[in-house]
């Protein structure tokens, strides 16, 4: 097997074509350098240099070995750098779960940031419910979850990542579409497309908010997908209350209007992760996302 120190000595002599200058570049005396070259030639059973009192030149085999040796040392350097990046977390993979609303604005912007900061970390995504994500984080199936409710579990840690208001989504030709803002009381007896109980945090939040303002909407349809809700609004099937980030979806016949009672309504999402997660790449990502949130 090749001795890497001997290969380094060979490259120095082949580059300088002088044992003296090569020894100086390696910060060693000439006799040990000469000995390393001799040992390498003995190992390979070939002559690498033509030597006389004045000149040192590479043999044909030496020239071929020189090119291969340079590529070998470059590859070894790459291995060293790659291993260091893995150890520091700069290379690796992080699995992220998320609820659907996170992908409207927040998560794409976050992914763009992470791709720029950590080009060698692969971020894999998995859309699932809050309950499914909690189970996945606990069971080490995902590193980071974006959920609607912080679970009561001592093994997990969390941080608020999204806190946005809601807006009304109204058909363009609906009487309410001309209003600059809408109190929830104005939805009394109005056809409303509501989130299904499967989206319990939002379902509970909106139904309780309507009750608090004395409004009794006519729930004409229940849906578990914001895009489905907005598609129904677009064809005039009813009105809806959706997270503000959903207003990025542009429909020809949908008008988004701020709520007069928006201070009472907040769509919150949270990061969750295991406290004992040992994934170095995850720790780099977590630090970056928490800093990103703090700066917003």
TrEMBL record:
Keywords for the protein's UniProt record, in alphabetical order: DNA-binding, Transcription, Transcription regulation
Protein's recorded name: HTH lysR-type domain-containing protein
Pfam hit, one: HTH_1
PANTHER family according to UniProt: HCA OPERON TRANSCRIPTIONAL ACTIVATOR HCAR (PTHR30346:SF0), TRANSCRIPTIONAL DUAL REGULATOR HCAR-RELATED (PTHR30346)
Family the entry assigns: Belongs to the LysR transcriptional regulatory family.
UniProt entry tagged with the keyword Manganese: no
Organism, scientific name: Trabulsiella odontotermitis
Residue stretches making up the HTH lysR-type domain: 2-59
Entry keyword RNA-binding: no
Lineage: Bacteria, Pseudomonadati, Pseudomonadota, Gammaproteobacteria, Enterobacterales
GO molecular function: DNA binding; DNA-binding transcription factor activity
GO cellular component terms attached to this protein's record: protein-DNA complex
